[in-house]
Amino acid sequence: MRLHPSLLVLLLIAVTSLALSAQEAPSPDASPVSTAPDTTARENNPVTTLKVNVNLVSLYFTVHDKRGALIPNLTKDDCSIVEDKEPQKIKNFNAETDLPLTLGIMLDTSGSQQNVLPMEQQTGSAFVKRILRSKDEAFLVSFDVQVSLLQDFTSNPRLIERGMDEAQINVGGGGGGVPGIGQGPVPVQGAPKGTLLYDAVYEASNDKMRTETGRKAFILLTDGEDQGSTHKITDAIEAAQKANAIIYVLLIADRGFYSGYGYGLSLGYTGASAMKKMADETGGRMIDVGNNGKKMEAAFQQIEDELRTQYLASYTPTNNKLDGSYRKLDVSCKGDGLKVQTRKGYYAIGSTEDSQGQ
């Protein structure tokens, strides 16, 4: 049968169209063709994320009556906060007994502590066993002619105890290595130096405490004498304040050591006033225990009680400039002879400078 010429043309067109469609159809192994909208313009012009810094000051503090007993049941209406002589409005106020706690145990292993180190090791280990819970953390640093990390952050009191047991008196030799807690000892230049106490607090504040959140406290076991630090006491205090860490000092002075060098106890060391300043400025306390084991046990118990009987108050300061300036604080609570124990001030640092703020 012969087809009409016009029908033959139509048939050829249909066959050609089918062949072209078959060539354009993707094979099962071909890469999928994206039907998503073009995002080139969006990638070249990224969306800006709005970041807001909220300047909220948080204060941990304890309150004692005139006999020294802790006061545990105050409310927001009982207390007031003044910043640079300007009253502040308290936004949040809570009694905190169970918040996670970060502890930095600082052990003086210089020559003057030779006779009292075993007492510090035993009593300090017992304290950590009592106070450290599963959600808490602690680290251990020794300081003498160098600053050494004996145990990094842990929730296991046995590891702190082991670090305590391994601590040794070091009166010379210096130290090499990269400066900074956790990266080796702080190097000393020239002749061996004595007791790098201020360097230890400064380094531990910046390298360990500043990036932590929540309640933070240092416990220094020392006679308070600093010899050879590259940082001053004001640097150490400022670093601790910026880390929002409280400093407790157990002042441990070995009477035998100082009398052996011909000094009277009152003249043999001058660390007490420096340690009191360091503790007071950060909201802690200095407790003089001498070389008496019972006094040391009692001091550790006082610190434990205070850390478990704290208030947390927060406010947005009327001065909202994040200019790095130091702001003086005065916290008071109503009651007969009540005494508030808290830091004396803070640095107005924004979150871009300090991830933890104040």
From TrEMBL:
Span of the signal peptide: 1-21
Alphabetically ordered keywords of this record: Signal
Domain of life: Bacteria
InterPro entries: VWFA-rel_acidobac-type (IPR017802), vWFA_dom_sf (IPR036465)
CDD domains per UniProt: vWFA (cd00198)
Biased composition (Polar residues): 32-45
Segments for region (Disordered): 24-45
The protein's name: VWA domain-containing protein
Originating organism: Alloacidobacterium dinghuense
